[in-house]
Design goal:
Barwin-like endoglucanases; mainly beta; 80 residues; five-stranded mixed sheet; 1 helix
Length: 80
């Protein structure tokens, strides 16, 4: 992972192109209203500019879009 450590699919982590490592985000699935807090631990997603985050499988499960693979979300930076 770009921020150090190893990827653990069950953790609440995300990849983002520009946010600093360690940034905490509140992510909401716009389809079902479910929310999760994740920490930026990696860089990405790369390729399609329509994708702003790459979430771990654990976060996707909490947001209930694992099967679909993608979801429309809103992400807000949490300030300590």
């Amino acid at each position: 992972m770009a921020c150090g450590g190893t990827y653990q699919h069950d953790k609440m982590v995300a990849a983002h192109r520009t946010l600093p490592c360690g940034t905490r985000l509140r992510v909401k699935n716009l389809r079902n209203g479910r929310r999760v807090t994740v920490t930026v631990k990696d860089r990405g997603p790369f390729g399609d500019d329509d994708f702003i985050l790459d979430l771990s499988r654990g976060a996707a499960k909490k947001l209930r879009f694992v099967r679909a693979g993608t979801a429309r979300v809103r992400a807000v930076v949490l300030h300590n």
